[in-house]
Amino acid sequence: MKYAGPFLSRTVGVVQDLSLDEQWYLYTKTAAIKKAILENQEVASFQIADHGLSVYLIFLEDSTRTKESFRNAALFHDVTVNVFDVASSSVNKQESLSDTLKMLVGYGRRSLFIIRSTVEGVCRHLENYIGGYCQKAGIPQPGFINAGDGRHEHPTQEFLDEFSFLEKKAWNRDEIHIALTGDLYFGRTIHSKADGLQIFHRVKVDLVAPQELALPEFYAQKMRSNGFIVRNFDSIDEYLQQKSIADIWYFTRLQLERMGDDVLDKVERLKAAVTVRPDHLPLLPEGTKFYHPLPQNRKAPTIPHFAESLPLNGWDEQSRNGYFTRITLIGMIGGALGQEFSGKTRPEETLTDDFVEEVPVAGQTKLGDHKMGIKPVDNGIVIDHIGVGRSIEQIWKLLDKIRRNLQLNYLSSQGVFASSKSQTLKGIISVPQLTELGFKKMKKLAALSPECTLNIVQNSQVVHKYRVHMPPRIYNFEEIACRNENCISHARQHEPVQPEFLRSGEGFVCRFCERPHTFDEIWTS
Description:
Blueprint: E1 11-12, H1 20-38, E2 50-59, H2 65-76, E3 79-83, H3 97-104, E4 110-117, H4 122-137, E5 143-149, H5 155-168, E6 175-181, H6 188-191, H7 193-196, E7 202-208, H8 217-225, E8 229-233, H9 236-239, E9 248-251, H10 261-264, H11 267-274, E10 289-291, H12 315-333, E11 356-359, E12 380-386, H13 392-406, E13 413-418, E14 425-432, H14 439-448, E15 453-458, E16 461-468, E17 473-475, E18 500-504, E19 507-510, E20 516-517, H15 519-522
Parallel strand pairs: 1-5, 2-3, 2-4, 4-5, 6-7, 6-9, 7-8, 9-10
Antiparallel strand pairs: 11-16, 12-14, 12-15, 13-14, 15-16, 17-18, 18-19, 19-20
C-alpha cells in the first residue's frame, strides 16, 4: 500500500493545524468508520496495516481516556504500538525530550508520536527540531499529535467534541448555541473551542462561570474575532433567569490542583455556581444534552449522578467517540486516509516584510542639528525617533540594546533629546561612515524600536529615509523570553528551543504556547 496524501506526517498541535475542510473530512470519515465498526462491516480499507510505522504514546501527564482511546485506536490500525514508560526512561534521568525523540525516530521506518505533557507547545517545537534532524539524517518525517499540553490546547478532545455536537445536530452545520461552564480558566478543552466551533457557520457561546474561573480574555477575544456571539454569566442560576438558553451544555471539572490558595478558599461557592441541580432541569430547552470531557470529581461532580440515566446524558457517547475520531486522525497522519481529499488545506505560513517603509525625503534633505552630544553627519546613518515618549532611563537602555544587537561598534555618538516640535523625548544614534544597515539589521531594529527612522546621509544630505514598523515576527534575540514558565521555550524547561513571537493584533503571541505578550513583555532586559 502506498502511504501518501495531504495529511501524511503532519503535526496536529492545535485545532487550526487542520483547515475547516480538513476538519470536516475528519468528521465525515469518522462517521463512516464508526458505522462500519458498530455494524461489523469491512474495515480493512480504513486501516494503515504497516508494522513499519511505530506509534509512540508518550504520556508525561496522567491520563486514562485519552491514553487508552489512542492506544486502542493505534491497535485498530495494525501498526507497531509503543507505550512509552516515562518512569524507566531517560526522560526520568533528566534527558531532554528533544534528545529522547531523536533516538526513537531512528528505531523504525516511520514514526508517529502522540504526546501529552504539562509543558506547553511541545509538538510545535518537535515538529521543527526533530523534523530538521530527520531531514539531515535522511529519515522519513515523523508526525506529531498533541494529546493535551498544559493549559494550552487539547485538539483531539476538541475533534471528538465537535463530532459529538454534529451527531446531536444531525450534521446540520448552520448554527450552534452552546453554554460552556465550569473551570473555563484552566480548561484547555474550553480553550480549543475558540477555534474548533468554527466548523459551524453561526456560533453563539454563553460563558457561565464566576470571575475566578472565567475564560482568559485571550480566548474570549479570539472567539469574538472568529465571529462568535459571546455572552457572560456568573453562575448557572443567573444564566437560567434569562430566556435564551443553549441546548448544548459543556461542563468541565474544577481543576483544584492548579489553583492558588486565594481561589481554594472560595471552592464551595465556586462549585455551587457551576454545578447543575434538579431544580434547574425544568428550565432547560427540550432536547438539551450535557457534555463533559471527563473525568468528573466523584465527590463534587459538576453534573451530579442523578443526571446519568436521563436523556440529558451526552457525555457517555462523547467519551466513546474519542476512540473513533482518534482512529481517523491516526489513519490520516499515517497516510492511509485522505488521499481522496479535495478541499482546502491549511495555508502555508507567510510572514511579510512590509514593516520597512521608505519615506519620501523631498523637502527635508538635511537633518536638524542638536546643540549637545550629536555632531552633524556628512556621510553615514542616523537612527532617529528611538523610544519616542519613553522616560530618559528607558531610552538610554534602548540605545544600548540597539548598539549591542546591531553591533554598531564604530566611532559614533548617541543621546536623548527633546523633539524640536513637541518636546517629546526621543533617542538618536549617529554613525558616520556606515553607509547602510542591511535588511537583517533593519529587521532587528524594527523589533527593538518600532516606529523609529533610519536616515542614510551622503554629502550632508538625507538621500534615503526608512521608517520601521512592528515586524510580524520577533526571534533570534538572546534578550527575549516567553513569560510562561510552562512553555517549552522557557529556560526552566532546558530544551533546545529559541523563543519566537508572532504578531497578533496589537501584541504578540508565543509561537509555541500561544501565550499573549505585549511588546515590552517579550524582552528580558
